[in-house]
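for the recovery benchmark. C-alpha cells below, seq after
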C-alpha cells in the first residue's frame, strides 16, 4: 500500500466514476473522512473528457457524452449542477433516426412538433408522450429507485395513469406485439433507435423500458450536452468532495483488498465480479458465485473522430439533434442486434453518434471538431470499429469520410484499457434484462452489501441501472450512513 494513502479513513471509495463520486460527496458532506482511489490518471470514469492528442485543443468524451439521466436524476437535482457552473446545453431535437429512403424521424423536445412528423402515428405519439413527459418526475422516481423501497410516485394518484401507460407501452414494445400501437415505420424506427441504448435483443423488456424512459425525457428536459464535455459533471463532484475535506488519489489501482487502507466502510465503484474477486477470501463462496453470476452483457466499441465540418447529414434536420441513432428501420436494427447476441459483428451495426459542437461551439478549435460514436458489438470483440462506424455514418451522411482529419477506434476487447470497469466493452457493467434490472448484482434484499464487513458495491452493477445519474452511489451511501455510522438522514447536497 502506498505511503500517500496515509492515515485510517472513515470511508474509502474505489473508483471515481459518477457513482463513486456521488457516494463520496454524500459521505463527505455527512462529516466523514473520505478517500477516493482511482486507477486512471484523471477522475470521472465514464464521464471523462480528454485530449487524445488527435488534434491540438480538441477534447473527446471517451465514454458518455449526452446526459438526459444527469438532468433528470434526483441526485443531480439535489446537487444542482447548474449552480456549480455546469452548463447543460439542450439541443432543440433530442435524437434523430435517419432513414435511407425518406426524411429522418426526429424527436424534437416539443412533442407536437415530433408528432407532426410521424404521419398516421401522430395521435398516438402525442397522447402517450404528452402524458409521460408531463409526469416524467414520477417515472424517474420509479425507474431510478433502489428497486427495494416503494417509490413515493407509486402512492400518488395523480401519477398513476402515466405510470400505468409507461408500463403498458414498455410491455407492448418489449414483446412480439411491438407492432402495436405504432403503425408507421418512421415512428417504430424512432422508438427502436432509443430502445437500442440497452444493447439487447429487440424486442425485449429491458430495451423497451429503457427506450420509453429516454423517450419521455426527450420531451421533458431534453437530452443535454455539458459545455466543454462530460468531464464538467465529474469535475463538479470532485470539487465538492475536496471542499468537504475528501481526498482523491489518482493512478492508484486496487488489485487486492490489501491495497485498500483501513477504513470503517469501503465502497467499490467496480463491476460485481471484480469486487467478488477482491473479496474472494473474505466472503462465502455462494455469495462469491452469486456476485459473479451477473456476468457481462453485450458490448460497445468506441470511435473518436476529428472532422473539419459538421456531419453532412443527407437530411440536414438531423444536425439539430444532439444524438443520432444509426441503423435504419426497426427490422434492420433488430437484425443487427440479433447478430450481436449471436456473437457476430453485424455488417451495419447500431451506431450512436454525436457532434457536440453543434450545440457547444466551444468544442470547435481552428475549424476542427470532435465526433463521438460507438457501435454495438459482441462482448470482448477484438475488431477495430472505425471502418464499420465510418461506413454507417457515411450511409446517412454522404461525404462524412472526406471530412475526417483523424480517427481512433477502440475495440470492445480493449475498452478496459482506459477504464478497467469496462470489461470486454460491457458498458452496462453486467447483463441487462428485466430480471437483472431488479437483481443487480443479486436478488438480495440489500443488493449493495458485499458480504464482508463494511464493504459495499456502489457502481452501475447495482440498482437502478447504467447511466450518468449518480443514483447507485447515492443509494449505497444512504445504506453506509445508516448501517455503518448510524446516521439516519442524508446530508444536504446543496450549496
Ligand atoms: C462508450 C460509452 C458511452 C456512454 N454513453 C453514455 C451517455 O451518453 N450517457 C450516459 O448517461 N451514460 C453513458 N454511458 C454509461 C456511463 O458512462 C456509465 O453508466 C457510468 O459512467 C457508470 O458510472 P460508475 O461510476 O458506475 O462507473 P464508471 O464510470 O465506469 O467508473 C468506474 C471507475 O472505477 C475505476 N476503476 C476501475 N477499476 C479500478 C481499480 N481496480 N482500482 C481503482 N479504480 C478502478 C475506473 O477507472 C473508473 O474511473 C456510456 C458508457 C460508455 C463506455
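predicted aa per position
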Amino acid at each position: 500500500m502506498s505511503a500517500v494513502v496515509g492515515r485510517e479513513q472513515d470511508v474509502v471509495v474505489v473508483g471515481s466514476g459518477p457513482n463513486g463520486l456521488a457516494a463520496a460527496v454524500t459521505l463527505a458532506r455527512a462529516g466523514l473522512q473520505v478517500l477516493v482511489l482511482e486507477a486512471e490518471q484523471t477522475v470521472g470514469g465514464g464521464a471523462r473528457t480528454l485530449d487524445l492528442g488527435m488534434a491540438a485543443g480538441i477534447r473527446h468524451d471517451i465514454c458518455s457524452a449526452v446526459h438526459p439521466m444527469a438532468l433528470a436524476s434526483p441526485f443531480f437535482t439535489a446537487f444542482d449542477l447548474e449552480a456549480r457552473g455546469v452548463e447543460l446545453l439542450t439541443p432543440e431535437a433530442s435524437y434523430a433516426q435517419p432513414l435511407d429512403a425518406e426524411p429522418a424521424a426526429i424527436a424534437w423536445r416539443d412533442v407536437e412538433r415530433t408528432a407532426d412528423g410521424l404521419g398516421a402515428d401522430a395521435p398516438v405519439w402525442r397522447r402517450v408522450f404528452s402524458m409521460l413527459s408531463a409526469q416524467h418526475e414520477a417515472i424517474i422516481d420509479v425507474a431510478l429507485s433502489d428497486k427495494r423501497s416503494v417509490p413515493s410516485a407509486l402512492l400518488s394518484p395523480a401519477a398513476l395513469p402515466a405510470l400505468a401507460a409507461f408500463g403498458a407501452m414498455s410491455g407492448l414494445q418489449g414483446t412480439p406485439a411491438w407492432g402495436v400501437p405504432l403503425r408507421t415505420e418512421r415512428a417504430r424506427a424512432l422508438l427502436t433507435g432509443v430502445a437500442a441504448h440497452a444493447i439487447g435483443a429487440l424486442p425485449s423488456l429491458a430495451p423497451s423500458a429503457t427506450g420509453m424512459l429516454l423517450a419521455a425525457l426527450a420531451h421533458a428536459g431534453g437530452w443535454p450536452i455539458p459545455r466543454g464535455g462530460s468531464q464538467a459533471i465529474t469535475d463538479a463532484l470532485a470539487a465538492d468532495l475536496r471542499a468537504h475535506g475528501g481526498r482523491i488519489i489518482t493512478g492508484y489501482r486496487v488489485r487486492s483488498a490489501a491495497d485498500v487502507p483501513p477504513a470503517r466502510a469501503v465502497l467499490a465503484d467496480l463491476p460485481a465480479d471484480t469486487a467478488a474477486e477482491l473479496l474472494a477470501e473474505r466472503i462465502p463462496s455462494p455469495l462469491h458465485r452469486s456476485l459473479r453470476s451477473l456476468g457481462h452483457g453485450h458490448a460497445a466499441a468506441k470511435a473518436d473522430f476529428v472532422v473539419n465540418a459538421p456531419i453532412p447529414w443527407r437530411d440536414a434536420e438531423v444536425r439539430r439533434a444532439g444524438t443520432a441513432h444509426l441503423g435504419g428501420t426497426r427490422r434492420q436494427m433488430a437484425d443487427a442486434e440479433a447478430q450481436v447476441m449471436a456473437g457476430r459483428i453485424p455488417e451495419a451495426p447500431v451506431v450512436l453518434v454525436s457532434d457536440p459542437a453543434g450545440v457547444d461551439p466551444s468544442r470547435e478549435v481552428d475549424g476542427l471538431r470532435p465526433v463521438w460514436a460507438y457501435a454495438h458489438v459482441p462482448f470482448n470483440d477484438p475488431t477495430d470499429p472505425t471502418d464499420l462506424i465510418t461506413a454507417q455514418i457515411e450511409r446517412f451522411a454522404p461525404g462524412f469520410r472526406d471530412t475526417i482529419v483523424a480517427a481512433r477506434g477502440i475495440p470492445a476487447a480493449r475498452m478496459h484499457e482506459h477504464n478497467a470497469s469496462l470489461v470486454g466493452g460491457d458498458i452496462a457493467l453486467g447483463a441487462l434484462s428485466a430480471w437483472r434490472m431488479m437483481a443487480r448484482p443479486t436478488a438480495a434484499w440489500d443488493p449493495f452489501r458485499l458480504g464482508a464487513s463494511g464493504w459495499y458495491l456502489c457502481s452501475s452493477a447495482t440498482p437502478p441501472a447504467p447511466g450518468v445519474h449518480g443514483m447507485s452511489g447515492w443509494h449505497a451511501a444512504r445504506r453506509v450512513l445508516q448501517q455503518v455510522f448510524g446516521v439516519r438522514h442524508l446530508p444536504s447536497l446543496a450549496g
